[in-house]
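Inverse folding, one chain.
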């Protein structure tokens, strides 16, 4: 029986039960009247009951016709995750210790270089999200390419611009749908140094293009939408050096806010396509990190192995996707406490060249398993 049929049956049964003690004959036209307050009370009780049933169904059976899929959540998650790692990727391209961070790879050579330093970073990330009471499991592969440059305004001040392109392909478990999203991100970054203390800042704006397919027992449906977001972060840290060893603690705050536009699904098979309202998403993340670098001098340049460990505290709330008919899908609340670890190796070569590669993994994250491989190159012009 459909939900509408169940609703009408419940209403008729409740009204029939209450009619007997509340009715009387109208002597003029022999009609039956019912006390308005009693009917209102019945209607409210039924509405509350159905609303609770809808929330439970939406929380447990994503992929049904009356519950939107996970595709839009996965798109905003991919964009937010990359935006949150952008500052770290720029830091890896700059170098791993205090000298390389401020002066690029010039420490491996005695020549004089321009203040301009272009860099290129490639990022490949695999994410496996677990099924929960509110959300579906999915596997997501994302690839990103970051092109940027630094300009040294003064010995203690650096600034730059970066342009990133991210593509993410998501497959939802149980053949319940898939999604493909493209994200373009423009960032502006800068750093200020006071001796061995530094302040990094980054602001970015981005656009998301999303194509999705939702499958349910009544058919399959495609959807297309766009969205925009902006983010900002600031990180404060200090270099502690001892011979070839550098220990760098840092504290960062990151904020992101965005919106996916409203859209309507198109039926591929069957019926029951849905129309969605604007979807808003937001993140506020506090990160404390510790990085350990060791400088090894060789006859071809400087080799720096690095270990990075971070703790994240997320203050954002669950996303909500609402259809134009009022059906809500409340997503998973973001994991509040989790960690990350990264092993990387950088080479600062002669003639102002440097390359690096690293492997990063989420730690103790209750919702997902995530691994990233990052590699990049930097050149002092």
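Residues assigned per position:
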């Amino acid at each position: 029986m459909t939900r509408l049929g169940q609703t009408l049956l419940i209403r008729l049964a409740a009204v029939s039960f209450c009619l007997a003690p509340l009715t009387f004959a109208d002597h003029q036209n022999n009609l039956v009247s019912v006390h308005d307050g009693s009917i209102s009370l019945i209607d409210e009780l039924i509405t509350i009951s159905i609303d609770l049933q809808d929330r439970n169904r939406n929380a447990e059976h994503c992929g049904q016709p009356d519950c939107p899929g996970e595709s839009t959540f996965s798109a905003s998650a991919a964009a937010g995750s990359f935006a949150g790692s952008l500052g770290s990727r720029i830091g890896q391209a700059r170098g791993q210790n205090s000298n390389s961070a401020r002066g690029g790879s010039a420490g491996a050579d005695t020549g004089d270089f321009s203040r301009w330093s272009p860099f290129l970073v490639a990022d490949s990330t695999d994410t496996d999200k677990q099924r929960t009471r509110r959300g579906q499991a999915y596997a997501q592969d994302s690839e990103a390419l970051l092109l940027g440059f630094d300009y040294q305004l003064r010995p203690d001040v650096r600034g730059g611009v970066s342009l990133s392109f991210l593509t993410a392909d998501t497959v939802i478990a149980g053949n319940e749908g898939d999604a493909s999203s493209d994200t373009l991100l423009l960032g502006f970054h800068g750093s200020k140094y006071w001796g061995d203390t530094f302040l990094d800042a980054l602001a970015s704006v981005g656009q998301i293009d999303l194509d999705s397919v939702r499958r349910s027992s009544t058919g399959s449906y495609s959807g297309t939408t766009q969205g925009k977001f902006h983010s900002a972060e600031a990180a404060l840290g200090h270099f502690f050096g001892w011979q070839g060893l550098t220990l760098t603690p840092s504290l960062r705050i990151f904020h992101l806010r965005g919106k996916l536009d409203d859209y309507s699904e198109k039926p591929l098979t069957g019926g029951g396509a849905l129309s969605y309202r604007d979807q808003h998403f937001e993140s506020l993340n506090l990160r404390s990190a510790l990085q350990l670098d060791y400088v090894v001098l060789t006859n071809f340049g400087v080799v720096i192995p690095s270990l990075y460990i971070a703790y994240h505290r997320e203050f954002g709330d669950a996303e909500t996707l609402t259809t134009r008919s009022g059906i809500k899908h409340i997503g998973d609340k973001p994991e509040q406490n989790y960690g990350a670890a990264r092993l990387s190796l950088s080479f600062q070569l002669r003639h102002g060249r440097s390359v690096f590669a690293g492997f990063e993994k989420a730690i103790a994250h209750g919702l997902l398993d995530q691994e990233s491989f990052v590699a990049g190159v930097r050149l002092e012009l």
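The radius of gyration is 28 Å. Confidence is low (pLDDT under 50) at residues 1-66, 104-113.
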